[in-house]
């Protein structure tokens, strides 16, 4: 995706927090501003989705009001053979609106969700053992 230079007028109430966030994140102003704008666009497009820092680094789409990442709902939906009734049963504590938001986000941004699912599936027992040998059962 090509970046096109644009000029934008920002009041101090927007610019100053962006500058502070960029400083704290040790990133340039433009990359932080673009990330925040894109997240805002996605949240406006798919109400019920929020973004949060991931323990592994980076920002992830989550179902608002939960700690669930969108990809987790999508994985569960696939595991129940795309059965809406079974998904609602599996996540009985979530509202229909929350579940629909997760699926709508996955439909709107499939590449992002597929990449996250691929990364999650790479964490097999043997992959964990290779990366973190201290977590493997000891051989006797």
Give an account of the 3D structure.
The chain is mainly alpha-helical and 140 residues long. It has a single domain, classed as Winged helix-like DNA-binding domain superfamily/Winged helix DNA-binding domain (Arc Repressor Mutant, subunit A, Orthogonal Bundle), CATH 1.10.10.10. It contains seven helices and two strands. It has helices at residues 12-25, 29-45, 70-79, 84-90, 96-108, 110-121, 125-131; strands at 49-53, 59-63. A two-stranded antiparallel sheet has the order 1-2. A hairpin with a 5-residue loop joins strand 1 (49-53) and strand 2. Helix 1 packs across helix 2 (29-45), helix 3 crosses helix 6 and helix 5 packs across helix 6. The termini are far apart.
List keywords for this structure.
Arc Repressor Mutant, subunit A, 7 helices, 2 strands, 7% strand, globular
Measured distance between first and last alpha carbons: 53 Å
Number of domains: 1
Approximate strand percentage: 5-15%
For the biggest β-sheet, the strand order reads 1-2
CATH class: Mainly Alpha
Helicity range: 55-70%
Query: Over all CA atoms, what is the radius of gyration?
Result: 19 Å
The average pLDDT score comes to 91
Number of DSSP strands?
A: 2
CATH architecture: Orthogonal Bundle
CATH topology: Arc Repressor Mutant, subunit A
What overall geometry do the principal axes of the alpha carbons give? globular
CATH homolog superfamily: Winged helix-like DNA-binding domain superfamily/Winged helix DNA-binding domain
SSE string: HHEEHHHHH
Low-confidence stretches: none
How many helices in DSSP terms?
A: 7
Which structural class do you get from the secondary structure elements?
Answer: mainly alpha
Largest sheet: 2 strands, antiparallel
């Amino acid at each position: 995706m090509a970046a096109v230079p644009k000029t934008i007028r920002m009041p101090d109430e927007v610019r100053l927090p962006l500058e502070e966030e960029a400083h704290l994140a040790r990133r340039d102003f433009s990359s932080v501003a673009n990330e925040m704008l894109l997240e805002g666009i996605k949240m406006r497009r798919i109400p019920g989705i929020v973004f949060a820092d991931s323990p592994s680094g980076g920002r992830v789409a989550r179902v608002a009001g939960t700690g669930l990442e969108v990809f987790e709902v999508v994985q569960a939906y696939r595991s129940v053979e795309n059965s809406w009734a079974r998904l609602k049963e599996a996540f009985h504590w979530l509202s229909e609106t929350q579940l629909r938001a997760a699926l709508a986000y996955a439909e709107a941004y499939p590449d992002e969700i597929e990449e996250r699912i691929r990364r999650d599936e790479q964490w097999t027992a043997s992959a964990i053992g290779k990366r973190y040998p201290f977590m493997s059962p000891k051989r006797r």
